[in-house]
């Protein structure tokens, strides 16, 4: 099996997640090629059995470079993809109250926006996960490697 992984890491968190995913899948005998979207051409993406896309969230959306990459992507309908994104961890308000799930869903829309673009092209989602970033530039949440390993375990291997 071959996986092509495209990320849009800005501060290195997404790149760390991508490398951990590659390591996990390598232990299962699966080849993963990792690319930053700034170095990839969306109309010349290598053939693969599965594509993984990763973007940090900015103002609750995937960053512009990733949105443009996905909109210009040229792959046959029916391809399988997975999403592994990084988003800011929820923070308490001035009174120490954490945001309700409905508020989070309204402001953290990285996965829904990416799914909307990809599914409109006829691509098939097989898995999705988010890894939280605890500060503006990091670090990643304490058990981020566990999340990546669990995500890798959900990947089809054929």
Report on this model:
- This protein is an alpha/beta fold and 158 residues long.
- It has a single domain (2-153), classed as Rossmann fold (3-Layer(aba) Sandwich).
- It contains 5 helices and 7 strands, in the order βαββββαβααβα.
- The strands form 2 sheets. The protein has a 5-stranded parallel beta sheet, sandwiched between helices. Strands 4-5 form a two-stranded antiparallel ribbon.
- It is globular, with a radius of gyration of 15 Å.
- The termini are close together.
Q: Would you kindly provide a brief summary of this structure?
A:
The chain is an alpha/beta fold. It contains five helices and seven strands. α1 crosses α5 (144-153).
List the helices and strands and how they pair.
Elements: E1 2-7, H1 13-27, E2 31-36, E3 50-54, E4 57-58, E5 61-62, H2 64-72, E6 80-88, H3 101-107, H4 110-120, E7 124-133, H5 144-153
Parallel strand pairs: 1-2, 1-3, 3-6, 6-7
Antiparallel strand pairs: 4-5
Helix pairs in contact: 1-5
